[in-house]
Amino acid sequence: MDDCxxxxxxxxxxxxxxxxxxxxxxxxxxxxxKAKNHFLxxxxxxxxxxxxxxxxxxxxLLKCLKKIPELKKELGLENGYRLVINQGEDAGQSVFHLHIxxxxxxxxxxxxx
Length: 113
Ligand code: DGP
What we know:
The protein is α+β, with helices and mostly antiparallel strands and 113 residues long. It has three helices and five strands; from the N terminus they run H-E-E-E-H-H-E-E. Strands 1-2-3-5-4 form a five-stranded antiparallel sheet, with helices on one face. The protein is globular, with a radius of gyration of 14 Å. The relative contact order is 0.22. 2'-deoxyguanosine-5'-monophosphate binds at residues 5, 14, 16, 28-32, 40, 86, 92-95.
């Protein structure tokens, strides 16, 4: 997608601090960290919402979910972590390329509102 920020990051047109990359996904530091460690994992195929995901994209998302715990040290997951996928306006989704927030490195509360 030409004007998608995360597609631009995948293509290297916008710089990012990469932690992991393979044919299916990119994991990089979030530019506005909400925890001591805050990374984003994005599938390389562009889709906005879980509800729009096709079969191939769902396999890619599963690869993302399996890869994250393998990167325990790189992502600072030793003491636990939180994964968040914001979906739509109420959740505050601001970038419409599906992404998994990976939060770690500190104790976290639960404040949805
Ligand atoms: P969300 O609100 O769930 O759509 O999260 C979007 C996240 O993307 C937000 O935490 C900030 C991050 N972000 C937006 N633009 C950039 C960027 O250009 N670089 C990086 N590294 N992160 C970005």
